[in-house]
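To whoever picks this up:

The nightly regression suite flagged Filamentation induced by cAMP protein Fic as changed. Nothing in the input moved, so I suspect the structure step. Input below, exactly as stored in the fixture:
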Amino acid sequence: MEERKFDPVLAATIIAFGFVFIHPFTDGNGRMHRYLIHHILAKLNIAQQGVIFPVSASILDKIEVYRMALESYSHPVLELIEWKTTADHNVEVLNDTIDYYRYFDATKQAEFLFECVFDTINRIIPEEVSYILKYDEFKRFIDDQFEMPDTFVSMLVRFLEQNGGTLSKRARAKEFAELKAGEVEIIENAFKEIFET
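Regenerated output under the current build:
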């Protein structure tokens, strides 16, 4: 594949969706399918070496479209497969099905994966970079004003994110009891100023 300059998204589509349609294992096929997408995109250099291209974030955001892309092939082909339930509650295929998977039309799956790659490049990665820059700015502010371990700052950010930029009364009394009321106000204001711009 690498020597032939095969398109990375098409290669990932054919291999990963082909795998999940064959469904060789009783468990883990979906996870392996998503791993194959990431592995092939990485192997064919869709991103810089050593960088994980976060296409799964886009797939997760489009989970219903993903399901439809899977079912657009798997449901029609299911009508062509003769099968029976086995004693161990698995499935035994009774007819020859290899050509259904060897020569499947992956157009809808390729369109979906191209859409996810586009979304990853144009939305997911820029949002993640923006978040990291804001997080780093907030951490620098905290480091300049207070002495807190990184784990405490990380927990502080999570709590502030979950509660719209403020610490709940419970969080103030429990996890952040060491902070004075004035310090909490300074932290909340800085968080809102940095993260809400």
